[in-house]
Each structure stands twice: as C-alpha cells, then as structure tokens.
Amino acid sequence: MTPEPMPSAAELLAFYLEAGVDCALAEAPIDRLAEEAAADLAPAAAPPRRPLGVAESVPAAAMARTDAAPAPDVAILSAREAAATAASLEDLRALLEAFEGCALKNTATRLVFADGNPQARIMLVGEAPGRDEDIEGRPFVGRSGKLLDLMLKAIGLDRNSVYIANVIPWRPPGNRTPTPQETQICLPFIRRQIELVDPDILVTLGNPSTQALLQTREGIMKTRGRFMEYDTGSRRIKAMPTFHPAYLLRSPAFKRHAWLDLRAVRRALTATTA
Ligand code: URA
Fold first, then answer.
1. CA-CA distance, 101 to 118, in Å (whole number)?
2. What's the whole-model pTM score?
3. Which one, of 195, 223, 193, lies nearest residue 208 by Cα?
4. Could you read off the pLDDT of 132-147 as tens digits, one per residue?
5. Where do runs of H (alpha helix) occur along 46-179?
6. 10 Å Cβ neighbour count for 159?
7. What digits encode the pLDDT tens for the residues 103-132?
8. With a 6 A CB cut-off, is 245 part of the ligand 1 pocket?
9. For residue 122, how far is its CA from the centre of ligand 1 (angstroms)?
10. Other C-beta atoms within 10 Å of 97: how many?
C-alpha cells in the first residue's frame, strides 16, 4: 500500500482550524504524550494542591486526581459553597477570578463576567463567551452581540437598561459546546449573579441557557415565547426564553419570533412598572 503523503504545515493548520483550534495557548508546543510517559516512570507524586474555594471537608480521596482541576462533583460542591458566600457582585467576580474548579479558566484569556447595568430590571443570560468576548472581557461584543443590541433597541432598551451575563463565564476552546459538567460547575455562580442583580424579568438566550436555568428538557422551539417562572432564591420572577442571536444570524427567518418574544418582555416590563 502506498503511504499517505505527509500533510503540509498549511494543511495541518487548516485541519486544526476546522476542528475549532483557533488560538495558541503558549509560545512553545508541549508534548503531553512525553509528559505522561515520564509520569509513569516517576515515583508517586505529592497530592495536588487543594483548589481555591474547595471546602476543607472535601475528602482527600475525592481530590486525588493527577491534573490541576478537581473531580466535577467536588468542583460543583465547591462552586456552590463559594457562590453562596458572595454578598455583592464584586464579591462574586472576585470569587470567580479565584475559583480553580473549572478547567475552562485555563484555556480562556480572561473572565467574562457581565456587561450593562446591575440595577436593571431585565437580565439576559447567554451560553458562553466567544472569541471576541474572550479578548474584550465583556459578553456579547461580537457579531451576535451587535444583533442583540439591535434587538434591544427595537424594544427601546440598550446596555444601560439591561444587565447581560452568560451561564459559563470563560470561553470554551474553539467555541466548543460546554460539557454538562462545566455547566453544572458554573451554574451556582450565575444563579447567585441573578439573585444579586434581582431583576424583574430574566431572558434566557438560546437552548443551553434556557435548559440550564429553567430546568427544562424541552427545546427552544417549544419553550420560546412563553413566560416561565424563575426562582431567584429570594423571589419568583418571570423568565422568557428566546432564540440566541447567533442562531438568528444563521436562521434569519426566526427573527420575527424573537421580535414577538421581546415585545412580550417589553409589555411585561411596562405592566410591572404600572
Ligand atoms: N454567545 C454567548 O452565548 N455569549 C456571549 O457572550 C457571546 C456569544
């Protein structure tokens, strides 16, 4: 059999790009396979340091993993404990900056915490930051953010009158879909963020945000456009699932549905003011 020709550097780069690998994490390549072989030969290593925010009570065995991130159940527990201690949005941001339980933090450039007005009566929650957000450190600043701004403008709102965040505050590498574990680890933080902002209306943008926050298994085609209830921990508020602007960019025919959803939000907002 004739061996396959070696791919050129350009072909390899194109392959990586296609697979979602679109940014370098370090100056020099790291051979992880060589690292693993060396670890197999080395005497038993000292237990990994306890990640910040993980409770003392976590059993040592549960932490005994070979990489820096703790097991997902330990990380979820530690996220819950950490988020519950945040007395303000500033506290919460600082806790997230110090949290070591989510491996996405290691590949993201920075934390993307929030944008807009923390006193707003409407809070919008997306899925996770993309490339532009990762660079700038603010949610929804790329193409879908521009569309979101237009959608808000259509109902007389802007970033001074809404508060915007994501379920996941770190960009997943190559914009891949966050894993269910990553979502569960980040969930206590966004829940606390919603509780601290205390909006009258929550808008979940897209399926992942809707399913994670409103605990439904139904898809966005079914959930959108109907007010649901969200328990902030201190009160029950209205929640409106609607399409994610990135989806609307790909499927503009659904823009009119999103427009109807946002008009319903506007009406509900006016009704709660009256
Ligand atoms: N998509 C999201 O869900 N959030 C962002 O911040 C940007 C794009």
1. 26
2. 0.80
3. 223
4. 999 999 999 999 999 9
5. 60-63, 72-84, 89-98, 104-107, 131-136, 143-154
6. 17
7. 999 999 999 999 999 999 999 999 999 999
8. no
9. 17
10. 13
